[in-house]
Design goal:
Length: about 230
């Protein structure tokens, strides 16, 4: 018997305490302080089940999300640790992503976002437009971020401006903002590098413009980073 125990200890099968299957699942596990697109889906499911009360969903797994998960776990007889692993995924009726699916999701980079944006070059400007048949400036951003980064952003420029992290110098994939017909952010585009940005212009539709352009340079407000 002693030999068996020793062998188990050497192979790592014998542990000092109970196995926490929720916390030992690796990259696919969702837990507090993580930032991942799957958190948005998690919050939506918890909301439908009456455990997540906030109308604001994001990729961040914060205190309110953890509390909702713990309440759900208690209700369903699970270990209430606030960690979404195999057992909690199953109880939520969510399909746990494989490592290859997670890798595919993480391949959505700022460069991917820019590539998606560029393919809509020439689409006409349409007030209130949010499809490839016609975009206004914020409709274009929302559509491209959904397709190119699997990220949901607000519908208006003013609301987008209140989201994300302010940066001193834009990098590829950041959103650049401008003050045009009213005080505050009222126009925006995606920075593509080379001091240029792509946007839906009321005069040209989806087009690429230099930040040095005399009209836009005088109205530039700054940049925000939505995706890392």
């Amino acid at each position: 018997m002693k030999k068996v125990i020793a062998a188990l200890a050497v192979t790592g099968i014998l542990l000092s305490g109970p196995i926490n299957s929720e916390a030992a699942l690796g990259d696919q596990t969702l837990k507090a302080n993580m930032k991942h697109q799957d958190v948005v889906e998690l919050q939506g499911v918890l909301q439908k089940k009456g455990f997540f009360n906030s109308n604001h969903r994001s990729t961040y797994f914060g205190a309110s999300t953890k509390r909702a998960v713990m309440n759900f776990q208690k209700k369903n007889g699970l270990r209430a640790d606030g960690i979404v692993g195999a057992n909690t995924y199953k109880a939520l009726s969510l399909t746990k992503k494989t490592s290859s699916q997670v890798k595919a999701a993480s391949s959505k980079t700022p460069s991917t976002l820019v590539s998606v944006a560029k393919k809509y070059t020439g689409v006409p400007y349409v007030w209130g437009g949010n499809t490839p048949k016609g975009f206004d400036c914020s409709g274009f951003l929302k559509y491209v971020f959904k397709e190119g980064a699997e990220t949901s952003i607000p519908r208006t420029v003013a609301d987008i401006y209140n989201k994300g992290t302010k940066v001193s110098s834009p990098q590829v994939g950041d959103i650049v903002f401008f003050q045009t017909y009213k005080k505050g952010a009222s126009h925006a585009g995606i920075y593509i590098g080379g001091n240029k940005f792509i946007h839906s212009s009321s005069s040209k539709g989806v087009t690429t413009t230099s930040l040095d352009n005399s009209y836009w340079s005088q109205r530039y407000l700054g940049a925000k980073r939505i995706i890392n």
